[in-house]
Amino acid sequence: MSAADEVVEVKARKILVAVDEGEESMYALSWAVNNLLVSSNNTTTKDTLILLYVKIPRVVYTTLDGTGYLFSADILSSMEKYSNDVAQCVMEKSRRLCKDLQDVKVETKIENGDPRDAICEVAEKLGVDVLVMGTHGYGMIKRAFLGSVSSHCAYKVKCPVLIVKRPKSSSATRE
Amino acid sequence: MSAADEVVEVKARKILVAVDEGEESMYALSWAVNNLLVSSNNTTTKDTLILLYVKIPRVVYTTLDGTGYLFSADILSSMEKYSNDVAQCVMEKSRRLCKDLQDVKVETKIENGDPRDAICEVAEKLGVDVLVMGTHGYGMIKRAFLGSVSSHCAYKVKCPVLIVKRPKSSSATRE
């Protein structure tokens, strides 16, 4: 069967957007909302939009610390709380960007682990139709340790991957 | 200005799809047509769809030949004709996939050069809103020489890049 004979049906889709604390992922989400979820006549689709945030587990931070000292239970507990607060904050910000999508079912999902693996696993497990992400996920420092999350996912997942970069004009103040 | 304050307007877009003789790029085009250009109520957008085919210049073939012999003018002329025929064939096949897009302006563009550079240059020059491409562009052999076209472009171009992989079920007979 040739590709030209294949019929790609238009149906309700599952769109996975990987969000994080970086502004680039918020831009990627905005782009997806406006280009995949809102049609030209301003009606929205009946798709499911899944917002995924991956919390990097504590062990990564303790390794990054590099001193070999163990953190006290108090510090670990504060770090855990901080990490949860960040996740909630990112999800709230993300949801605000989706507030006009009346017919779209918006779901949120918070996972723990290496974002590269967690994003790919969620994409496969949920059988999503497209994965959307920014390029500079997880900040400058974390990126150096984790490698490029988006290029890893683009290589690994089976579904279409949309990589959205933030235009230079609006990121001029960042770098 | 934070990303959340940015307004991504819905307007007529320029969508660039890099097509080649591989079935994966035809699948990528189908996916783009159905997911970016046809809305849920089957109306199409007023976007411009640019189909780009890049002819790899003759010098690459003579290098691949590896014998060091020069081709005769006859053979070079046949190769040029063959290359043009392939380009036309790919464009016709691509146009057929777009036949139901009544309101979309479909343009075709044939360039010469290294696809990695040519695709990025066209994307920048035309100021496209999104670049769509398959992953296995330019076949198994050419890919080994040229490297992954899609990952190069995803890294280099400034606009969002949509990388569409062909589902395994429909490519089982190929590899």
From TrEMBL, chains A, B:
According to the entry, every stretch annotated as the UspA domain falls at 13-165
Task: Write down a Pfam family by its short name.
Answer: Usp
In terms of InterPro entries, this protein maps to:
Rossmann-like_a/b/a_fold (IPR014729), Universal_stress_UspA (IPR006015), UspA (IPR006016)
Q: Which named protein is this?
A: UspA domain-containing protein
